[in-house]
Amino acid sequence: MQLKRLYDEQAPKKQWGTRLDPCRGCDRGKVVNAARDGVEDCPLCNGTGKMEVLVPPVVGVRILRAGRVQRFTQNLINGGLQEGWLGMAGGRITITAEPENLTYRIVRVPGAYCCHCDAPVPGGLTVALAAESLAHVAQVHPGDESPDPHNPAGYRVESCYGTVLEVGKPIELPAAAKMDRAIRDELAARAGQKYGAQVIGPGALARRKKEKTPASTGPGGSSNG
Ligand SMILES: [Zn+2]
Ligand SMILES: [Zn+2]
Questions:
Q1: Structural domain includes residue 208
Q2: CA-CA 20 to 30 A from 162: which of 12, 49, 53, 129?
Q3: What pLDDT, in 10s, does the model give residues 77-111?
């Protein structure tokens, strides 16, 4: 999902917040001194390398890209809740946005899942919970090799909310942006040939997958991220 925040530049100044940006006048808080024989603290940011900038309140978001199948990180959800353009209730995530509001139904919550039967397992990142997940795999699927080579233990930990679009239309990247990406992939592939290394962009990876499995859904399938 790609969003652009819409700010209310006309809002009264007392509603504006602050954000720390890297200082533009120095390199991590240091500038060359007057004698040009060393460095000294940047006078703009007092040597901190950061500058506080005023930002107007966010009134909503414009959606640049939204898939039919979408993963939401906790960070994105927290940011949206805080800024007021995202709501979460009744197993759904709603986004107040241009060109239209979107509602996603939550089909998977963050947690651990069995790679064999897809059942939620008690697992997590702590050792005790991992042991419970391993116990499920050992009891229900004894001796079976994990179907997921990335998770040879037989269970995986998902950190995102998995959702499916329920109200609204998915939004594709504009053609120009897609073309930019294709050009980047092409250049990356050529650089790989030139230097004898394998440089693979996300687009190139998808194409390779497609070549391997010609019966795949092709363009217009699900898109994550
Ligand atoms: Zn500075
Ligand atoms: Zn299982």
A1: no
A2: 129
A3: 999 998 889 999 999 999 999 899 999 999 999 98
Distance 55 CA to ligand 1 centre (A): 19
Residues 105 and 118 occupy one common structural domain: no
User: If you measure from the C-alpha of residue 139 to the centroid of ligand 2, how many angstroms do you get, rounded to a whole number?
Assistant: 9
Which structural domain, as residue segments, surrounds residue 79? 58-110+159-170
Rounded CA-CA distance 78/72 in Å is 10
213 domain residue, yes or no:
no
Residues in Cβ contact with 5 at an 8 Å cutoff, skipping those fewer than 6 apart = 58, 61, 83
Domain contains 105: yes
| Residues 164 and 182 grouped into a single domain | no
Ligand with the closest atom to the CA of 23: 1
The ligand whose atoms approach the alpha carbon of 123 most closely is 2
Read off the pTM: 0.62
150 and 74 share a domain? Answer: no
The candidate with the shortest Cα–Cα distance to 5, out of 57, 61, 59, 56, is 61
Kindly give the distance from the C-alpha atom of residue 152 to the centroid of ligand 2, in angstroms, as a whole number: 13
pLDDT at residue number 28: 93
Domain membership of residue 53 (yes or no) is: no
Q: How big is the chain, counted in residues?
A: 225
Tokens, residue 172: 């594709």
Ligand 2 center from residue 107 Cα (angstroms)? 18
Q: Structural domain tally of the chain?
A: 3
